[in-house]
């Protein structure tokens, strides 16, 4: 039976629920951690310590930290004239720096988990990104802080995947776009979402878990949408 270690979630209550739901794809065996935070970088170093002491390994790490808007502090910029240094730094700190530092500190446990050969020969790191972080897919502009922070997350994750492969560490890293999901993050912008494109948390999580469950070593460093289609950088 899979053990689930969860740091304080943002919208990841649904991920936790999906793992225990028989209708959702399961990560069979091993230890999984869902990392998310509503403020700051969201590192829970004490809880990392807990995983090492309790289990000694990690088979699946999902980084779900994300920030798009904060009333009176951060709003998606519709024009260059609204770009602020503080907004860029805040978005980068939460959306890019946090997940990467979590991987850094979970790295030793992931190596052990990947070498334990529970169901598969590698551990998986899944970072939640966004399609707007794709440079090749950017045809609308705007949302400077959010776009650039997710692009940074993509580059950092890709770079980590290259290092893991070069070191022959039994770990793969993938990036996932969950679609537009009915959460607090998307709520202020939902009126512009086309009919049928606003997903429930449960639907999106099941789709993402299916991608994780079916991931292969050749998927290391790739960027996938919720429907399994690869997204251009």
TrEMBL record:
MF annotations from Gene Ontology: oxidoreductase activity
Family statement drawn from the similarity comment of this UniProt entry: Belongs to the short-chain dehydrogenases/reductases (SDR) family.
UniProt feature coiled coil, ranges: none
Provenance organism: Phoenix dactylifera (Date palm)
SUPFAM superfamilies per record: NAD(P)-binding Rossmann-fold domains
Protein name as it appears in the record: C-factor isoform X2
Source taxon at top rank: Eukaryota
CDD domains recorded: carb_red_sniffer_like_SDR_c
One Pfam family, short name: adh_short
Entry GO CC: cytoplasm
């Amino acid at each position: 039976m899979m053990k689930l270690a969860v740091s304080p979630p943002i919208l990841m209550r649904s991920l936790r629920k999906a793992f225990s739901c028989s209708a959702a794809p399961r990560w069979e065996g091993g230890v999984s951690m869902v990392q998310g935070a509503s403020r700051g970088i969201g590192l829970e170093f004490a809880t990392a310590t807990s995983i090492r002491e309790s289990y000694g390994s990690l088979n699946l790490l999902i980084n779900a930290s994300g920030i798009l808007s904060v009333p009176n502090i951060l709003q998606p910029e519709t024009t260059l004239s609204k770009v602020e240094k503080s907004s860029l730094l805040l978005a980068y700190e939460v959306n890019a720096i946090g997940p990467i530092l979590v991987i850094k500190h979970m790295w030793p446990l992931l190596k052990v988990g990947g070498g334990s050969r529970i169901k598969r020969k590698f551990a998986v790191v899944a970072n939640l990104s966004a399609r707007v972080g794709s440079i090749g897919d950017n045809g609308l502009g705007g949302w400077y802080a959010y776009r650039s922070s997710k692009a940074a997350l993509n580059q950092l994750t890709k770079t980590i995947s290259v290092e893991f492969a070069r070191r022959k560490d039994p770990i793969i890293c993938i990036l996932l776009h969950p679609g537009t999901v009915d959460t607090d993050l998307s709520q202020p912008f939902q009126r512009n979402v086309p009919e049928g494109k606003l997903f429930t948390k449960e639907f999106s999580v099941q789709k993402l878990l299916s991608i994780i469950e079916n991931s292969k070593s050749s998927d290391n460093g790739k960027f996938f949408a919720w429907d399994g289609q690869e997204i251009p950088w």
